């Protein structure tokens, strides 16, 4: 069932060849931000992208093609956008962990996907998050016009283990290419005890409250106040 629907999704767009960029951001243990970009390689595909008017449900268990033709109140759908020249279309959705496990795109490309919290500590808190897939990539077998899929996962959590092709700070990339993906799979193990704070979180925690940062903040605030007061003064002079 799952593969039949992903085949339908891709067939909507790619007539003669296309590539897909899949991105997943794990910002928190129960926050999975997914986006899928499809890139047109020919003018025929660009025309297909421009004429796209279907709806894509987020759940691979969708059991009726009618959910692609119109929106139903109890069905969740991907947000959809395209660029100005219709060479790229993008789908996105923010999941909790349970819903992500049933996502349309990730389940369509792999026979199996598992996302689980692991290793309870003495405080009854999980210390690891594991994401893994089967070692058979299905998309190329089912659709001749798909040439390449790039999977990119980013996360603020520290890395414990991965089999990614490329690893950089909090970013992990896998390249699936036609003819070169046999036995390839995604594996990522994150350390829930270590998480990089965002700049806003650092600010809220008081990490930026140093003499230097306070002086910079006050300097910027002073400039803003100066221009606001000058604008008010100019308005009064015109009266």
Show the helix and strand layout:
Elements: H1 2-13, E1 18-28, E2 31-40, H2 43-50, H3 66-69, E3 79-82, E4 88-95, H4 97-100, H5 104-109, E5 113-120, E6 126-133, H6 139-142, E7 146-155, E8 157-162, E9 166-168, E10 171-177, E11 187-195, H7 199-205, H8 211-237
Parallel strand pairs: 1-7
Antiparallel strand pairs: 1-2, 2-4, 3-4, 5-6, 6-11, 7-10, 8-11, 9-10
Count of strand segments: 11
Spans of at least 5 consecutive residues whose pLDDT stays below 50 are: none
Helix content: 25-40%
> How many domains, as an integer?
2
Structural class: alpha+beta
What is the CA-CA span between the terminal residues?
73 Å
Average pLDDT rating? 80
The general outline is: globular
CA radius of gyration is 23 Å
Bin the strand percentage.
35-45%
- Secondary-structure element order, N to C: HEEHHEEHHEEHEEEEEHH
Count of helical regions = 8
Largest beta sheet: what is the strand line-up? 3-4-2-1-7-10-9
Sheet with most strands? 7 strands, mixed
Q: Oligomeric state of the chains?
A: single chain
């Amino acid at each position: 069932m799952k593969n039949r629907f992903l085949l339908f999704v891709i067939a909507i767009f790619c007539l003669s060849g296309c590539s897909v960029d899949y991105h997943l951001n794990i910002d928190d243990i129960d926050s999975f931000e997914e986006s899928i970009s499809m890139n047109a390689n020919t003018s025929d595909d660009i025309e297909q992208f421009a004429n796209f008017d279907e709806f894509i449900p987020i759940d691979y268990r969708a059991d009726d093609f009618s959910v692609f033709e119109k929106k139903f109140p109890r069905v969740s759908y991907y947000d959809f956008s395209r660029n100005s020249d219709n060479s790229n279309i993008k789908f996105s959705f923010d999941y909790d962990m349970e819903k992500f496990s049933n996502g349309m795109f990730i389940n369509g490309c792999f026979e199996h996907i598992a996302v689980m919290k692991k290793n309870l500590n003495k405080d009854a808190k999980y210390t690891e998050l594991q994401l893994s897939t089967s070692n058979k990539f299905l998309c190329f077998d089912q659709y001749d016009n798909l040439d390449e899929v790039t999977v990119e996962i980013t996360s603020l959590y520290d890395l414990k283990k991965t089999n990614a092709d490329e690893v950089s700070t909090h970013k992990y990339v896998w390249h699936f290419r036609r003819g070169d993906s046999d036995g390839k799979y995604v594996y990522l193990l994150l350390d829930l005890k270590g998480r990089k704070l965002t700049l806003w979180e650092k600010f809220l925690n008081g990490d930026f409250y140093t003499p230097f940062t306070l002086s910079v903040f006050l300097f910027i605030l002073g400039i803003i106040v100066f221009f606001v007061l000058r604008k008010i003064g100019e308005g009064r002079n015109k009266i």
